[in-house]
Amino acid sequence: MLFYAHFHHPSLSRDDLILTGKKAQRAIKKVQRDLRTKFENGEPFFSKDAIRDVRDQLRQSTETGHKITVRGLNNMPIDFILATGDICPRIVDDSSDDDDNEDDENSENGDVKHILTNPCIRYRTLQALLDYPKPLIDMHSAYCNMQIAHHSVLKNKFTGKILDGSDAIPPSKKFAKRFFEKNLRTWKDGQQCQSLLSILKAKQDYFKNGGVSNIISFGSGTFTANVRSDWKTHSTFQHASLLTLRDFLREVLGDTNDTKILAQDPAYIQRDKDILTEQGITILEDPDGFLELDDRSIVFSCAPTGTNHADCDGSVSAIDAC
Ligand SMILES: C[S@@+](CC[C@H](N)C(=O)[O-])C[C@H]1O[C@@H](n2cnc3c(N)ncnc32)[C@H](O)[C@@H]1O
């Protein structure tokens, strides 16, 4: 679950910014108009400089009180104050219209508490900004397409026991590897792998002419952590497709092939990383994958969420595998 870091606009008091009634409606329309114009004028929505800047600030410190300044699309700064270790303030609920929603299934239960852990970037797509929740909190955050949030762990307030399963021991590496290899074989023998290969073969001249710099997978999921077993199966098949791409390039380009296969998913645990690295896939931490994109990248992303289908500048060929 995600929680907001505390945020405010540095030069204005928060109370000055809260808009209500007709004023708010007019302000929302103005923001929506502005955002659409920017999009239609082809302004990059996520610039690499902006992503790099936020990444560097987050990597300086993740301690509570550390300030991360993000410039919104209107170029105004918003300060996010990290709250690592705090008990939850406001839940980010992407499935609801109301960002102030605190009525998650556990907040009713007085025995449990969410402890904020590592901070992360919460990418807001154009659509997410256009659907900015009402009431409008302030004009500046309405333009902020990279918000800072925290992951959390759910604990019993009195015993300190972790209740969300995040401390469960994952399956052994040997077991996870066997599961991955079994599904890799099933994928290779299947019709979908053949279909992918025939699409790639039809485009082989493009690859031979230096068409591809790297293949970057976003959000292909964990297949070793304690998540639902069908999610793990999806994840193995998605990584298997990535390896098919890699093998195809090896076959077509031979020794000249230096195409890197990169993968970014904050859900990876160490076991995923170990197994994927052994397969020749380089694991990147968020947001480094976005910074590796260029106009010769292939992006591989299945069932992406709003957080991982950022349209970064400098990209991209996409494989739509939904
Ligand atoms: C809806 S799930 C899809 C998982 C998998 N592709 C599937 O089809 O089952 C979205 C995935 O995106 C990942 N994700 C979220 N934020 C991300 C980010 N910034 N970069 C890469 N992956 C991200 C999540 O951890 C999750 O694995």
UniProtKB/TrEMBL annotation:
Limits of the SRR1-like domain: 208-301
Matches recorded under InterPro entries: SRR1-like (IPR012942)
Pfam families documented for this protein: SRR1
Protein name: SRR1-like domain-containing protein
